[in-house]
């Protein structure tokens, strides 16, 4: 008789304390996210020390809520997955230690998960993967094109050389005096404006799948500064629309080219910026005529959550990966190396 498998996951890499339970790799039965955004807003970004303290306050409550929401007891859990990196070290440590304590107390297996692998696997809660697939990861800390030929292996074919896409959104938003995190605010503003300012697009060398957003960010800041000095008025919605068009153009064009070159069956979009309406519609347009399936997670699975860590952790567990009680937070964990490890 086959028995259902339950994976409990904890995610505390940045400013969300999250706990989730996933059944049989793909079925979400609990998904609790305690966001700290309000506490960081007045500083215009995440303050690491404040993040760690909030995680300590929230971790037990979010765990209890996940058990209540799913009606599943800790004894029934088969393995405990936790984000081991990358992220803020003090924040990661809270999740890693909570997971180790639970695993030790209940003698359950422990699995470490890479945060970006999690963002990618958020999509598997919606749709089965078909390989080879290409993933466009766009978050506050990452902008990467990742090729997957099978479960659990990751080949980074392009990455940002400076700012991440979300970081550029947040910095431009700050210049436009919009609240933190700025991505959703720019997205909304952009929908009301016209992309009538010609901002640069960093295509880089021919054939390169790398990204660069710092030049664009500086161009926006300079444009606003010069207009102010000349007493010209620029409509913020036009600045937002022009900036967004430049980001979306580069992201969607490079993703499209890579998907064709590597002959992938699916293209997956992951990370907080996957919530961006401009990016979503540009990708839908680009792939509409192609025999490549486009997967974009629902909004609540785009930003940080533990459901994605459970989905990636379940696969790692079933592939035989186990972490020991020496599992540590690894703020600079490499995705490729994570995918290559034997245990
Ligand atoms: O994946 P995520 O929740 O956290 C990280 O792992 O970084 O991504 C957060 C980032 C922030 O920079 C935020 O501004 C951006 O995602 N973001 C957006 C949108 N929603 C969130 N950027 C553009 N448009 C959006 N609608
Ligand atoms: Zn993230």
Give, in spatial order, the strands making up the sheet with the most strands: 3-2-1-4-5
| Rg from Cα | 20 Å
Largest β-sheet summary: 5 strands, mixed
Structural class: alpha/beta
Number of strands: 10
CATH topology of the largest domain: Nucleotidyltransferase, domain 5
Q: How many domains would you count in the coordinates?
A: 2
Which descriptor suits the 3D outline? globular
CATH C-level name of the largest domain: Alpha Beta
Instruction: Give helix and strand order, one letter per element, not per position.
Output: EEEHHEHEHEEEHHHHEHEHHH
CATH superfamily of the largest domain: ATPase, nucleotide binding domain
Put simply, the count of helices is 12
Task: Assign the CATH architecture of the largest domain.
Answer: 2-Layer Sandwich
GO molecular function, one term: tRNA N(6)-L-threonylcarbamoyladenine synthase activity
Binding site for substrate: 137-141, 170, 183, 187, 276
Keywords: Acyltransferase, Cytoplasm, Iron, Metal-binding, Transferase, tRNA processing
Family: Belongs to the KAE1 / TsaD family.
Descriptive report:
There is one protein chain. By secondary structure, the protein is an alpha/beta fold. The protein folds into two domains: 6-121 and 302-339, ATPase, nucleotide binding domain (Nucleotidyltransferase, domain 5), CATH 3.30.420; 130-296, Nucleotidyltransferase, domain 5. Helix content is 43%, strand content 17%. The chain contains twelve helices and ten strands. It has helices at 37-41, 48-70, 89-106, 115-121, 165-175, 183-192, 214-229, 236-261, 277-287, 299-302, 307-318, 335-340, and strands spanning 6-11, 16-23, 27-35, 79-85, 110-114, 133-138, 143-148, 155-159, 266-270, 293-295. The strands form two sheets. A five-stranded mixed beta sheet has the order 3-2-1-4-5, sandwiched between helices. A five-stranded mixed beta sheet has the order 8-7-6-9-10. A hairpin with a 3-residue loop joins strand 2 (16-23) and strand 3 (27-35). Helix 8 (236-261) runs parallel beside helix 9. The radius of gyration is 20 Å and the shape is globular. It starts with 5 loop residues before the first strand and ends with a helix. The model has no long low-confidence stretch (mean pLDDT 95). The protein binds 5'-O-[(R)-(carboxyoxy)(hydroxy)phosphoryl]adenosine and zinc ion. 5'-O-[(R)-(carboxyoxy)(hydroxy)phosphoryl]adenosine binds at residues 14, 139-141, 166, 169-170, 181-184, 187, 271-273, 275-276, 303-304.
């Amino acid at each position: 008789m086959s028995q259902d498998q339950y994976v409990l996951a904890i995610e505390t890499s940045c400013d969300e304390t999250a706990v989730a339970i996933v059944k049989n790799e793909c079925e979400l039965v609990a998904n609790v996210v305690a966001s700290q955004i309000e506490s960081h807003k007045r500083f215009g970004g995440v303050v690491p020390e404040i993040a760690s303290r909030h995680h300590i306050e929230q971790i037990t409550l979010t765990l209890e809520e996940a058990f209540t929401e799913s009606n599943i007891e800790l004894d029934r859990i088969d393995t405990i997955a936790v984000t081991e990196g990358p992220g803020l070290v003090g924040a990661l440590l809270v999740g890693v230690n909570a997971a180790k304590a639970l695993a030790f107390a209940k003698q359950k297996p422990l699995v470490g998960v890479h945060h970006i692998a999690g963002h990618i696997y958020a999509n598997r809660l919606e749709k089965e993967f078909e390989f080879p697939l290409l993933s466009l990861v766009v978050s506050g800390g990452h902008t990467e094109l990742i090729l997957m030929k099978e479960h659990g292996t990751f080949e980074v074919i392009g990455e940002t050389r400076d700012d991440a896409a979300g970081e550029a959104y947040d910095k431009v938003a700050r210049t436009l005096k919009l609240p933190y995190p700025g991505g959703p605010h720019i997205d909304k503003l952009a929908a009301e404006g016209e992309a009538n300012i010609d901002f640069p697009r960093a295509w880089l060398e021919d054939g390169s799948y790398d990204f660069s957003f710092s030049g664009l960010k500086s161009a926006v800041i300079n444009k606003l500064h010069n207009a102010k000095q000349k007493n010209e008025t620029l409509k913020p919605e036009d600045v937002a629309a022009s900036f967004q068009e430049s980001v979306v153009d580069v992201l969607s064009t490079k993703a499209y080219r890579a998907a064709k070159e590597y002959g992938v069956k699916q293209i997956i979009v992951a990370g907080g910026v996957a919530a961006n309406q401009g990016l979503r519609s540009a990708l839908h347009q680009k792939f509409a005529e192609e025999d490549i399936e486009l997967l974009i997670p629902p909004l609540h699975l785009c930003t940080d959550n533990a459901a994605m860590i459970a989905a990636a952790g379940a696969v790692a567990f079933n592939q035989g990966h186990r972490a020991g009680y020496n599992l540590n937070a690894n703020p600079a964990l490499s995705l490729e190396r994570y995918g290559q490890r034997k245990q």
